[in-house]
Each structure stands twice: as structure tokens, then as C-alpha cells.
Amino acid sequence: MPRQTSKPRARHQASEARPYHHGDLRRVLIDAALQLAAEGAEVSVREAARRAAVSPGAPFRHFPNRDALMAAVAEEAQRRFRAEIEATLEQACPANPLARFRAFGIAYLRWAMRNPAHFEIISTGRYFAHGSSAELTRDNAELVALTERMLAEAAAQGLLRSTDLKRILIAGRALIYGFARMNLDGHFPRWGVEEREIERMAEEVIDLFIAGIAAR
Amino acid sequence: MPRQTSKPRARHQASEARPYHHGDLRRVLIDAALQLAAEGAEVSVREAARRAAVSPGAPFRHFPNRDALMAAVAEEAQRRFRAEIEATLEQACPANPLARFRAFGIAYLRWAMRNPAHFEIISTGRYFAHGSSAELTRDNAELVALTERMLAEAAAQGLLRSTDLKRILIAGRALIYGFARMNLDGHFPRWGVEEREIERMAEEVIDLFIAGIAAR
DNA sequence: CCGTTATGTAATCATCGATTACATTTCGCG
DNA sequence: CGCGAAATGTAATCGATGATTACATAACGG
Questions:
Q1: What are the pLDDT digits (tens) for B151-191?
Q2: A213 to chain B: which residues are within 8 Å by CB?
Q3: How far is the CA of B20 from the C1' of C24 (A)?
Q4: CB contact at 8 A, A50 and A28
């Protein structure tokens, strides 16, 4: 929790000098890094420090190394990601598991497409050792478990053609993750002038998948 | 084509000195970079130069910058990727487009899983500006076109449930690409002790997709 | 009020991509 | 041939970065 700096005394000389101790440098560094990523710039510790108006070595008081900063950044992004998905699911028809699955997929892809850099940090084991953040791993596992539950309910209600839930789960994850990554990795030529256009494609792809696994 | 160095004269002094001019530095640098990537190390121009036993500045005679080297590396990797897929398709039942699609997907995923670093370089716009290599773009487009043709044939033979080929194509690409990236990005916990296990999952996922789009 | 701890600064190092000036080899053209 | 231009590699150097260390200063508690 951010400690409240109680209006620190001014330095010996300047009346408006920045206090020696930053308010909550850790938080500010994470935000700066998130912002850097969102801007498409690559995240460097120094640049984050620069934005926090702090010396290049200061961040290392809060993070042992760059990877640790990135892991913290990923945790924050994942928190936001998960929060938005769960908020969307709050207002999704609770009775129909496949409709919920659909809403989940759409929310997932919407966030991924509107926060590409953050999604990249979350989903790729490139910025820090995969599994180095227990929180990130847990949050992600819970999203997977959420998906699993929806499919299990669908199966219980006889909505699925096959009962091989494991296989359906993996295929569904691959489909959604793949769509997000295709967008991220530039596999959609810039025909899709409208962002809205790609989101419509996302819906169609999800619907195709659901039609494929649904009983009929 | 690699120019043949016709046994260059020895230096003024040593009888076994390395010739001033490298045989085909460009090629050697690309191979060194491919090897570096395959070893999981991150590719640096200097390290490639080191492996080629050449000064750190030498590579820049062949590549204007690091990105250009990476683009050349990607082109080579893509060439191998495409060659293997097409070789596999050579011996796939030519009459059944869905069987060919299945073979395509399996070959795609097999290569991606056995050459993760190379697949990463190919498929991500991270190592160089996306579209900076016309050859890479073309090669990739041809694989997509190949998939498109298989699906069109399947539709022509009445094997598909829907005729929305565009949607099926994107979904299929997303599914296969997503599976490959999930493996790459560490989304498969290390349960799959056996590599063979993951390859079996890949087959199952592809089969599930085909079952989903097939007429019945 | 003092000292222990938390936090930031300054200086330094190795690595990397990149550029420049220079050296040597290769090759084409007369 | 042989000579000069072009190709190719070397050496030295620059700025940025991640990281470490020694030191300075502020914050907190007894």
C-alpha cells in the first residue's frame, strides 16, 4: 500500500525542490513502464527512472533487476486484464454457459486488441522467466479454470457434441490466444482499417468455434 | 550462391593464418545467428561475429544493421519451414482436401515445436519491422494461400458445413498459430514430459477443428 | 535526540549496436 | 600483366543499457 508522504520538509535551499525520497517509487516505476509499453517504446529501467525523475540506479532499490520490474508490470497488467473480463462476465447471461463462453472470448480479445503491448507482456515468457511471478501464474490459471468451468457446465447441460472437455478447452484456448497473437504479431494486414472490423472478425471466429463444438 | 574461395595465399608470415577475407561471411553469420537462436541464447551481432571469428564491425559490411541480419535469418528459417511443410504435403492424399489440411496443420505444428526459436523469429514482428522482408512476406502469404486452396477444394466437394471460407480460414489459422504460440510462450505446463505428447495434442486439436467445420 | 534502516545518488563496468578511419584483398579493365 | 577501384575486414570509438558498489540523506522508532 502506497505510503503517504506527509509533505516532506523542503530542502535546505530551494523552496520548491523535490524531496529526496520519492513518494512511492515502486508504483510510479510500474506505471511508467506500463505507459512506456503502451506507447510502443521498449521498456528500459533507465527510461522508467527518467520518467520518475530519479537516478538510473534508484529503481534497483525496489527491483533486484529488470526482469523483476517487468514481472511487476506484468502482474499489474494481468490484474487489469482479469478484472475487465470478470466484470464483463458479471453481466452475461448466467444460465447459458456457451453464451458466457462467447462473452468471455470477446472480452478477452477486446482487451488484447486494445492493450496489445500489455497483453504481450502478460502472455509471453519473454520479458522475465516464465513462472517467476506466482501471482501472474495464479491469475492466469484462474482464467483458464473459469473457461474450464463454463465448458463443463455446457457439457452437463448436453450442449456439447463431444465430451472430451480437455481437448475442447485446449482448442478453444488456442483459437482465442491465436487470434489475439495474430493481431499482435501483425498477421492481419492493414486492410482492417477499422478496429471495429477486427473485433467483428473475432466474434465471428468465436461463433464458428462454438457452432463447431455445439450439439445439434 | 556462395562464392568459392580458391585457397587464398597465406599471409606474409604465418603459414596457417586465416585469410583476411572470410569465405562467405554473410552466410556464416546467418548460420551462426540461427544456431544462437536455436540454443536459446539471444542473438547479438557481436556474438555472431565472434562465432565467425571476425571483428565486431565486420557484419555491418553485409547488413546495414541488426534488423537486417535478423530479417535474413528469418528468411532462411522461413525457407526451411515452408520446404518441410511442402515436402510433407507431397506425400499426402491429394484427393482429400481435409486430409491435406490435417497433414498441413500437423507438419506446421511439428516444425514449430521442434524449432521454437526459429518459429518465433519467423512469426513475430519483434526482431525486425514487419514486412521489411518481401521474401518472408511472400513465403508466408503462399502458405496462407495454400491453406485457402485446400479449404476451397473442400467446399467445392461439399465437405464443409459452412461456405464462409474467409471465416473458416481465419479460425483455422488462429487455431494452429495459437497452438504453436501457446507451446512457445510456455502456456503448456511441463506436464507434457514427452514432446510426443504435445504432438498428439496438436493432432487432436486439429481433428476437433476439422470435425467442427465438416459437413455431416 | 540519536542511530538504524530505507531509499536515492554518483561513479563505475561490461555488453551491445553503430559509425568512422584505415588496411588489405579481390577483381575488372586497359 | 598490372594498376586502380571496389569489396571486405580491422581498430578505435561513441552512446545507451543493465547492473554493482560506495556513499549520502531522509524517515522512523526507542
A1: 999 999 999 999 999 999 999 999 999 999 999 999 998 76
A2: 208, 212
A3: 7
A4: no
